[in-house]
Design a protein that fits this description.
Blueprint (H helix, E strand, L loop, with lengths): L25 H6 L7 H10 L20 H55 L3
């Protein structure tokens, strides 16, 4: 059995050199030459390659049967990754909103309690 590589390699198989790969930033990825740059070019590209029905929203089930399974699987993996990111962002936004609402409510309750105590203290005979 061949030794297991400890570092990742952009190629398949054993990495035989010590390489330091720096992560590519979002800006660098977007700057790379590519036909697909946004939602409009995505639609144009998929329709031109007959990977989706023209004039209809894209779904993974529309992909041509000639599309390799590996490509379809990779696209599905990215879709689930993006869905998870979207869910995490929505969850974070909801959490922030609920926390803000609770803090506001608790502050209002605390203020009402303080006012009530002051009113009660003033109305009690000394």
């Amino acid at each position: 059995m061949p030794p297991i590589s400890c570092t990742t390699s952009p190629t398949y198989g054993l990495n035989t050199r010590k390489t330091a790969r720096s992560p590519t930033t979002q800006e660098e990825i977007e700057a790379l030459p590519n036909k697909v740059k946004d939602a409009i070019s995505r639609k144009t590209f998929l329709e031109s390659k007959l990977l989706c029905h023209i004039g209809q929203p894209f779904t993974i089930t529309q992909m041509s049967s000639s599309t390799p399974v590996l490509v379809v699987t990779a696209i599905r993996a990215v879709v689930y990754l993006l869905k998870n990111i979207e869910i995490n962002n929505i969850t974070e936004a909801i959490t922030k909103q609920v926390a803000h609402s609770l803090i506001t409510e608790l502050a209002d309750i605390n203020m009402a309690d303080t006012i009530s105590k002051k009113v009660t203290d003033k109305s009690l005979p000394n």
